[in-house]
Design a protein that fits this description.
Layout (H helix, E strand, L loop, with lengths): L3 E9 L6 E8 L7 E4 L24 E6 L4 E4 L2 H6 L3 H6 L3 H4 L5 H13 L4 E9 L4 E12 L7 E8 L1 H21 L1 H25 L7 H26 L5 E5 H15 L4 E7 L5 E5 H18 L6 E10 L17 E8 L29 H12 L2 E6 L5 E8 L5 H8 L3 E5 L5 H10 L3 E5 L3 H6 L7 E4 L4 H15 L4 E6 L16 E4 L8 H8 L4
Parallel strand pairs: 10-12, 16-17, 16-18, 18-19, 19-20
Antiparallel strand pairs: 1-2, 1-3, 4-5, 4-8, 6-7, 7-8, 9-11, 12-13, 13-15, 14-15
Length: 542
């Protein structure tokens, strides 16, 4: 339960005979004569806490007071950040009941009635439709009735914005189903490849044993060639699914984009025409190719979904060089002396209404029903562009569709060195020997961030979304944890390296079930003579 502040009214100062409020922190529920306040409202001169104004920047919620008919009497300035409408306008011009979503109107009216009668705080989640804003917010409200001395009373309440949380709850089932479906890809592909192998062997054998003049020769050759193409596509599909991000390298964007577009051409319906205009200028970029392909696929899927089905459409891919990024990118793009490689995906769909353009790159935002998309596609493109030092922008297309542009900084071929210097590899050091802390300190001296523990490493890593760069096992820990750690790392598809220490007078021991570490080092692991090998594994030169 959060820390609240207890107020008691009508206490008398024995020296001045003035009434005042006693305010003190409490976790206790309300008692007769006491009330709980979300912030300390202290009488002048009685405390150094200061006024509520100084607390406003720290409050994540909107606090307000209303009369019993819903007219705002006071509202905190956070209302403008929540709604885009200044607090003064909420006080003087807006009618509260006009802002409540019509579908929630009856629920809110019952909520008001219950709050008048109840002593406890009443809670309700409902939607606000903001006039002139073209958007709907979902708020979680806590409301209580406060009886007045000379008037019927007022309401005090607080709003917390739960719009993104509500969208996430609606779209997570769809996202979970897509993830489950994707997990079936490797197994199904393996079985299909077995069938393809049989068909390929039979058709190729027939082609080899027959002549061109044979009536079945051409058909057998067609079957053989088609099966080979299908098998290659399956291999590419599995590679896209199984390859793991984390390897940043230099790439010629023309070649990388061309390879990805060749794969996408096979996955896009033939009802959609596919055009490309790539600059012949070779543009070097420094990025993770796996993340790039994922971002481009997400961008293409977004545009394909915008084209009505059934019906025809067109996609146009353009790559060009630009000396600077535009101002209308989703995030401010840092200036880059060598300019930007720009990939634009343009469709001839219905376009994006102007009222929605400001939300395009927000997580969980989607114009599709919750069962048809998670609303994370354009957001993931934005995050990839950020990591590369670039950005993503939207512009309406000339024929009424939409054009999304991915801006990637052109490399000066020093990016890898800068990234290597900036990145501090995270390493878990596992062991029980007295040398644990000494080894940890030795690894820190060569530029590693080290977490040393004698606990269960699988328990520590189980809750992590991203794996560490390395797990180092001292010799007494290696036999116990090697197999379970390897299994965890493989299941999460982490790029985590395993480094094992073994007795100095012996060679590396046989590891269970053929599991091998990425690096096996004789004790002591933290010796200066081993630093070069560890650095080469975790901090390779660009």
């Amino acid at each position: 339960m959060p820390l609240l502040f207890r107020e008691q009214w009508d206490q008398e100062d024995p020296k001045t005979s003035r009434s005042f409020r006693i305010v003190e922190p409490t976790h206790e529920p309300s008692r007769p004569g006491l009330k709980l306040s979300p912030a300390p409202l202290l009488a002048e001169g009685l405390s150094s806490w200061g006024s509520l104004d100084s607390w406003q920047p720290l409050l994540a919620t909107v606090v307000f007071r209303q009369d019993l008919d819903g007219r705002f009497l006071e509202v905190s300035p956070q209302i403008e950040k929540l709604s885009g409408i200044p607090s003064q306008e909420w006080l003087e011009e807006l009618e509260f009941w006009d802002c409540v979503h019509p579908a929630d109107l009856e629920r809110v009216q019952r909520h008001f009635a219950a709050s008048k009668e109840a002593v406890e705080v009443q809670t309700l989640d409902y939607r606000l439709r903001l006039p002139g804003q073209g958007k709907t917010l979902t708020v979680s409200e806590r409301r209580r009735g406060v009886p007045g001395r000379l008037s019927p009373g007022i309401f005090e309440g607080a709003w917390t914005d739960i719009t993104s949380l509500t969208k996430a709850e609606q779209r997570m089932p769809s996202c979970s189903w897509q993830r489950a479906l994707a997990s079936l890809t490797p197994g199904v592909t393996h079985d299909l490849n077995n069938h393809f192998s049989s068909i390929l062997a039979i058709s190729d054998g027939f082609v080899r044993r027959s002549t061109v003049a044979h009536p079945f020769y051409e058909g057998s050759a067609t079957i053989r060639d088609s099966v080979q193409q299908a098998a290659k596509l399956l291999q590419k599909l599995v590679a896209v699914h199984l390859t793991r991000p984390g390897e940043w390298r230099y790439h010629t964007l023309n070649e990388l984009l061309g390879e990805t577009l060749d794969f996408l051409r096979h996955s896009i319906s033939r009802r959609i025409s596919f055009q490309r205009e790539l600059t012949p200028q070779k543009l070097p970029v420094y990025l993770d190719a796996v993340e790039f392909r994922r971002a481009l696929i997400a961008l293409v899927k977004n545009t394909v979904d915008a084209i009505a089905n059934p019906g025809s459409g067109s996609l146009k891919f353009e790559m060009r060089f630009a000396p600077r990024a535009p101002l209308e990118t989703a995030d401010p793009v840092p200036e880059h002396s060598l300019g930007f490689a720009v990939i634009t995906v343009e469709d001839n769909g219905p376009g994006v209404p102007e009222s929605m353009r400001g939300q395009l790159f927000n997580p969980w935002f989607s114009t599709k029903p919750p069962t048809e998309g998670a609303g994370l596609g354009l957001y993931s493109v934005r995050e990839f562009a950020r990591r590369c030092g670039g950005g993503v922008s939207f512009a309406p297309a000339a024929d009424g569709g939409a054009a999304f542009s991915l801006w990637l900084p052109v490399s000066d071929l020093n990016d890898g060195d800068r990234r290597t210097r900036a990145h501090v590899p995270l390493t878990y050091l596992i062991g029980t020997s007295p040398q644990l802390e000494d080894t940890a300190q030795s690894l820190r001296e060569i530029g590693l961030s080290v977490i040393a523990t004698d606990g269960d490493p699988t328990e520590l890593l189980q809750s992590e979304d991203e794996g560490p760069d390395a797990v180092c096992l001292l010799q007494e820990a290696a036999p116990r944890w090697m197999q379970s750690l390897s299994r965890l790392i493989r299941s999460r598809r982490w790029n985590t390296r395993i480094i094992c220490e073994h007795p100095a007078m012996q060679g590396p021991p046989p590891y269970p079930d053929g599991v091998k570490p990425d690096l096996s080092i004789p004790a002591p692991l933290g010796a200066p003579s081993h630093h070069t090998r560890i650095r080469a594994l975790l901090m390779p030169p660009p």
